[in-house]
Design brief:
The chain is built from 22 helices and 29 strands. With about 800 residues, it is α+β, with helices and mostly antiparallel strands. The strands form five sheets. Strands 7, 8, 9, 10, 11, 12 and 13 form a seven-stranded antiparallel beta sheet that branches. The chain starts with a helix and ends with a strand.
């Protein structure tokens, strides 16, 4: 009860009691009025405090003394007792109430402390859970994913997202998000840092920003109205992601219902932001370290590939593979300047399912409006950010390479201080300019390309010179002999080495025998090719003048001692008498010849062996002899046909014999083809092969074709194939093909004017002569004096001296004869 109420009500009741007992008997005086007055005073003191009880006692006591006791001393004594009792009761009641209030305050404080402890425990639990998630997170995306999950779980949010600042601080890129509509995520995957959204204010203030309702959010950021109904906008909050004082990005949380954010909420968001900012920084350092390791590994891989690259194509493939894989490009092109610097040879490569596929190279002018030509001329790197920019600035290059990507980065290739080309990488998706690290890596590839391509070019020049020299020194065609059938082959090495010194030769001797040789000059390159030419020439001279293989080798050994590059060369020389199938042979350190019998059995000729040529001591040169069976085939070769790295030579010989026994049927060319299947496309050594067999009578060649100029190409190809087995030299075979082509062309143009017809070509070998005829069944139009055409027969007679022409009602036949031996 309040103090005034107690005072008024208590006093009124006391006075009423005193008036009620006015004139009462002494016994009543001594009892009821006094007790009631004491009671009311004590009650007032208990309800309203000691002062109120004392005042009520005074009011009631005054009435009691005046109206009941008539001022007697006993009445005043009773009043004093009332006052003391009311004061004591009021004091006791006040103390009790104070104790209750203190207890209530203590209880309230305890509840608040418990709630604060629970809130702090929950905050610490969320932070502890986040710490565990971050400990497992390796990449920046892992960290941001854990951050989003923790923000939603700790605050009960409906959505959350993380956006990180670009290095220049002008853009934000969404890295992780949950609970937002897909169209919003797609539209805001990357956006300017000053966009009118909550992230802008977080970046400006470096502190937590909260909005408790949709109305407040829309008022502050009107652009949110365009996000649609699915966007959670009941309340919003965002916190900075800090690593020390550096701002890395923004964490946002969204609620569908309005929310009053507390200081604890803001504190939790700020703590999460700081903890995750440090984790993001650590993840970035880890990713940078991993990128550096990958770059180093990629550079090492490319360096290793370039060390093995021999040709410019090998080097270009290695560079293109490294350039695409290192920066996540989808394609790359390398352009090399021609020797005169007027054009660039462009080799594009496209990455498909992890495999680099080279496109056919093409030429562009150095002055073309193309990125590669511009970078080659300008000598500086260039970034093209979009197809529109590419097409506007370099229309010609966009037309030929626009399908490789939407943006590209190109750098010059420099060797010995001079630009020799350009390298470009292409991206199918538009993106930002390559970072400094990426640009440095691409420049490193371009530098490596310059060194490797310069080396490859030097190799190719020497290789081509050596190959030209060797082709000029080798026998023409696949080999020729008047008395036996021969198929000769030479395959240069394809990997890791220059042109080799393997060779073969065939000589028809005056006594009717045939001399064969297969040799291998130690070493590679121009010196080996030059030494091979000298040794081969010496062998030809000796093979014509000497009658025994061992004598040829002995003389050749003395000759080789004075030839640079001929030291430790090997050679197998053979003399074959086709009339008796008698064979004599001698080997200077060379692999043994192989005999393929008609029944398919095989055997090696192991006799007549001695040391290689050019050694500084004189040793005997033995020889051996064999009599070949009818139909036997002789195979001689160099070690490139049988040798394999880390494999015994005997295994290569066994493999050769196995293959030879399976392919005995067919022509010599077919046998050679099958034996060369033993050689891999990726060869480290060159190969020389001679397959020798008895002379077979050629079957008759007969071809009938429509009188149409388009049929001549097929006829020429068929005739050339048949003539290769005729025993004629290459030049004579080509003369026969030319003469037949002219005769057939005349028949097409003059025999069938205005109508259709056929042309027949026949050829056969008979009595040491090759007889060829070209026949039509039409009527020729004789040329007019002023007609420059129709004179092909004059050319035929100029090429083939022995020519007859038979004309009749049934057509015309041109007959030609060429001596075979």
């Amino acid at each position: 009860m309040s103090f005034p109420a107690a005072l008024l009500l208590g006093g009124a009741v006391q006075v009423a009691v005193a008036i009620a007992f006015t004139g009462a008997s002494e016994s009543a005086y001594r009892g009821v009025p006094s007790g009631l007055g004491l009671l009311f005073s004590v009650v007032a003191g208990v309800l309203a405090g000691p002062l109120a009880g004392i005042l009520v006692a005074l009011e009631g006591g005054a009435g009691f003394v005046i109206f009941v006791t008539n001022g007697e001393l006993g009445g005043w004594v009773a009043v004093v007792l009332w006052i003391v009792a009311a004061g004591v009761a009021g004091a006791i009641a006040d103390r009790y109430r104070e104790t209750g209030r203190e207890r209530d305050i203590a209880h309230a404080s305890e509840r608040r402390a418990r709630q604060a402890a629970e809130s702090e425990s929950a905050r610490l639990a969320h932070l502890h859970n986040l710490t565990g998630r971050l400990a497992d997170a390796v990449t920046v995306r892992d960290v941001c994913g854990a951050l989003v999950d923790t923000a939603i779980g700790s605050l009960g949010a409906d959505a959350s997202g993380v956006a990180l600042l670009s290095p220049d601080g002008t853009e934000l890129e969404r890295v992780a998000a949950r609970g937002f509509p897909d169209d919003v995520l797609e539209a805001w995957s990357r956006f300017p840092a000053d966009s009118p959204v909550i992230a802008r204010d977080v970046i400006r203030e470096h502190s937590v920003v909260t909005l408790g309702s949709a109305e407040e959010a829309l008022e502050r950021y009107p652009v949110l109205a365009s996000f649609g109904e699915g966007y959670p906008m009941g309340a919003l909050a965002a916190a900075p992601l800090l690593a020390g004082d550096e701002l890395l990005g923004v964490l946002g949380v969204n609620f569908r219902a309005p929310r009053r954010f507390t200081l604890e909420d803001e504190s939790l968001l700020l703590a999460i932001g700081r903890q995750c900012g440090q984790a993001i920084e650590r993840a970035r350092l880890f990713e940078a370290e991993q990128r550096a390791l990958r770059r180093a590994a990629r550079l090492q891989e490319v360096t290793a590939r370039l060390a093995r690259a021999v040709t410019t194509e090998d080097a270009a493939r290695a560079i293109l593979r490294g350039a695409t894989g290192s920066v996540g490009a989808d394609a790359a092109s390398i352009a090399l300047a021609s020797d005169d610097g007027r054009s660039l040879r462009v080799s594009p490569g496209v990455l498909s399912n992890g495999t680099l596929r080279l496109r056919p190279p093409f030429e562009i002018s150095m002055n073309d409006r193309a990125v590669l030509a511009h970078v080659y001329r300008d000598g500086r790197a260039l970034w093209i950010a979009s197809p529109d920019e590419w097409e506007a600035r370099f229309a010609e290059g966009f037309g030929t390479q626009g399908d490789l990507g939407r943006c590209l980065y190109a750098v010059p290739i420099v060797a010995k201080g001079e630009a020799i080309g350009a390298l470009a990488v292409y991206f199918r998706e538009e993106r930002g300019k390559p970072s400094a690290e990426e640009a440095e890596l691409i420049s490193s590839f371009a530098h490596q390309a310059g060194v490797a391509l310069e080396r490859a070019r030097a190799y190719e020049v020497e290789h081509e010179a050596a190959m030209t020299l060797q082709r000029n020194l080798m026998p023409e065609g696949t080999g020729y002999s008047a008395t036996v059938d021969v198929d000769g082959r030479y395959l240069p090495a394809t990997r890791g080495v220059h042109v080799g010194g393997d060779w073969y030769d065939i000589v028809d001797r005056p006594d009717g025998t045939v001399a064969f040789a297969v040799g291998d000059i130690a070493g590679h390159g121009l010196q080996a090719a030059a030494a091979m030419g000298q040794v081969r020439s010496a062998w030809r001279a000796l093979a014509l003048s000497m009658t025994e293989p061992n004598a040829i080798l002995a003389s050749l050994d003395r000759f080789a001692g004075g030839v640079d590059g001929a030291f430790f060369s090997t050679i197998l020389t053979l003399l074959l008498d086709p009339s008796r199938n008698a064979l004599r042979y001698a080997s200077a350190g060379h692999p043994p010849a192989l005999v393929i019998e008609p029944d398919g059995s095989t055997r090696f000729l192991e006799g007549g062996r001695s040391v290689p040529l050019g050694l500084p001591f004189d040793l005997p040169r033995p020889q051996a002899q064999e009599r070949l069976g009818p139909g036997s085939i002789l195979v001689v070769y160099t070690d490139g046909l049988i040798e394999r790295r880390e494999e015994p030579l005997d295994r290569g010989l066994e493999r050769l014999a196995e293959v030879a026994s399976r392919v005995r049927a067919g022509s010599l060319a077919e046998i050679s083809d099958e034996l060369l299947e033993l050689v891999a496309d990726d060869r480290h050594d060159d190969v020389a092969l001679l397959t020798i067999g008895p002379r077979h009578q050629l079957e008759v060649f007969r071809r009938t074709f429509p009188a149409d100029p388009h049929e001549l190409a097929t006829m020429r190809a068929d005739l050339r194939t048949w003539l290769e087995r005729s025993g004629l030299p290459t030049e004579t075979r080509e003369d026969v093909v030319l003469a037949c082509t002219e005769a057939a062309t005349n028949a097409i143009e003059h025999a069938y004017i205005g109508r259709h017809g056929d042309v027949l070509i026949e050829a056969e070998s008979k009595d040491g002569m090759l007889q060829v005829s070209v026949t039509d069944h039409g009527r020729w139009r004789h040329p007019r004096p002023d007609d420059s055409r129709g004179r092909g027969l004059e050319l035929v007679r100029a090429v083939i001296g022995d020519v007859d022409v038979e004309r009749g009602e049934g057509g015309t036949t041109v007959r030609m004869r060429v001596g075979i031996s």
